[in-house]
Amino acid sequence: MSFADLTRLAREQPLRVLLVDAGDTDSLSWSGLVQPLRLAQRLLGQDFVLDVRTLEQAASAHDGDWHVALLVADEHLPRPAAPMLRAVIERCRQAAYWGGVGGAVLWLADAGVLGGIRIALPWALYADTEEITARAILTPHLFEIDGRHLSCCGGAASIDFALTLIEALCGAGVQAAVKETLCIDRVRSADERQRVALQARFGALQPKLSEAVTLMEANIEEPLSTDDIANLVGLSRRQLERLFKQYLGSLPSRYYLELRLQRARQLLLETNHSIVQVGLMCGFSSGSHFSTAFGTLFGNTPREERQRKLAAA
């Protein structure tokens, strides 16, 4: 499921978004999320309700007709008492889409409410994930949507997350106006990765996995085969596939393909290279293969992606 699925909520008026502040309004995770949403609220007026509450207010609330509910916490904040956290989670789960931002993602995973869900966790908290990896599926992405569940690693990614929500809920026009006010040129997509996440989590514990991903990132234009990568890092193909499946939830070939397609999307949005050139630069010798793979991952063709850039300009 992608953020495009949130667009069905745009037909419901007024849109109601709940943000639960865990107590650090000076953090980038909080300000990066709430400021863009407040600007969207000003633009839409009564059609967009942004409900900001403390933990205590959310825990004692009896209403629950929000479309999106998010618990937001910076990485360093101590976890709230279990009864209060359970009450806040129950309030948030009543929303159509709900989840956490920053350190709150770890709180939700530890509470056992993200079983089997793909989550984006701040890389600095990866050392605390040994017990939750059997329940949630950690990804190195900036933010994730899995079913009704939303998660964002926080920090500067909160701005990209908020702007992505605004586009899905309020439309590209509102997003463009908010971007202009905040002087933001590009919104990073959900599938972009925290650059340090793989090293932080796997560098010491799984150096072979980290080395394999580094090889992939360095060989986008002329992709290596899975066997070549396995040989270069000193593993069998089966051992490499097992590592990727266990820690990244994907086969090496699929992960590599997504890396190349993410690079292609970046080039389509940020350069004037032709679509054919972009495909070749990302290891696709066949234009039809490039277009089909791109459409499968992102839901639109390379041509439509380039047209979106031109329309935004």
Automatic annotation (TrEMBL):
Q: Does the keyword Chaperone apply?
A: no
Question: Which UniProt keywords are listed?
Answer: DNA-binding, Transcription, Transcription regulation
Which SMART domains is this protein grouped with? HTH_ARAC (SM00342)
The superkingdom of the source organism is Bacteria
> Which terms does the record give in the GO molecular function aspect?
DNA-binding transcription factor activity; sequence-specific DNA binding
What is the residue range of the signal peptide feature?
Answer: none
Record-linked PANTHER family:
HTH-TYPE TRANSCRIPTIONAL ACTIVATOR RHAS-RELATED (PTHR46796)
Put simply, this protein is called HTH-type transcriptional regulator ArgR
